[in-house]
Amino acid sequence: MGIIKVKDLIFEYIRRDEEGNVEGITTAIDDINLDIEQGDFVSVLGHNGSGKSTLAKHLNAILYPTEGTVWVDGKDTQNNEYIWDIRQTAGMVFQNPDNQIIGQVVEEDVGFGPENMGVLTKEIWERVDESLKAVGMYEFRKYSPNKLSGGQKQRVSIAGVIAMHPKCIILDEPTAMLDPKGRREVIRAVRALNDVEHITVILITHYMDEVIYSDKVYVMDKGKIALHGTPREIFSKVERLKELRLDVPQVTLLAHELKEAGIPMPDGILTKEEFAAAFDECVNRAI
Ligand code: ADP
Ligand code: MG
Known about the structure:
Layout: E1 4-16, E2 22-36, E3 41-45, H1 52-58, E4 67-72, E5 75-76, H2 83-89, E6 90-93, H3 106-116, H4 121-134, H5 150-162, E7 168-172, H6 180-195, E8 200-205, E9 216-221, E10 224-229, H7 231-235, H8 238-243, H9 250-260, H10 272-286
Parallel strand pairs: 3-8, 3-9, 6-7, 7-8
Antiparallel strand pairs: 1-2, 1-4, 4-5, 9-10
The structure holds adenosine-5'-diphosphate (ADP) and magnesium ion (MG).
């Protein structure tokens, strides 16, 4: 079993009136299966309302299945005994960094998690330093979080989670509120956590260009997994992605349109560099 396993998961939000009668049911997760290996970098894509946050909250025992089972590091999230273990194993980072930072000073904020876990003071400081270094924020350790940009704050939130030494980190649209520079900084930090620290990463996003570094991509639609595969497999399905209301990156779209127009460009172009190389090859073949 992988670090995270989701079997036949169904989740319904139930709305009730004042008397407790059921007014309506939204099936936010509609039969999902996942098996994520330790060390994987997995992305979950999907337009608004497709069920991404509801899924994320199941991986951290914030929500529990209506039907089916979720295991984190082999532990069933419905077993109350494991709740703190599970929350420590699978740390969560949310969209808005302002709601996640509570300390007056960066290093103090990052230390809260391990302090609450009862880690010894000397080790707390070691963890704070190493976590801030891992996200490239060590030089800001004495700053007030108010003085930081959105991308910097979000990296401090990530440091706060990794100071608890999770095996897995789940980021629910961590870049949604950031400018392009902040987005790049956060994605770079997330990649380093996976490459260097070997932390399992589950990145939830609706920006397609953020998923190109992942090992696997799952695309959600109406509470189901509509597509899954490597980034290249996913990016090859331009028409399907448009149906799923995702914004296909410009280079991928351009390559696809050239191909439709009869220029033999390969499918699943992910980056500008790949586009340039493939286009050069087409030109060379033509002359
Ligand atoms: P995403 O994160 O992909 O935008 P969500 O998981 O937030 O999707 O939402 C999935 C579906 O569940 C949507 O139809 C949404 O309206 C509904 N939903 C989300 N949260 C609640 C809630 N607290 N109560 C009722 N319905 C909800
Ligand atoms: Mg969401």
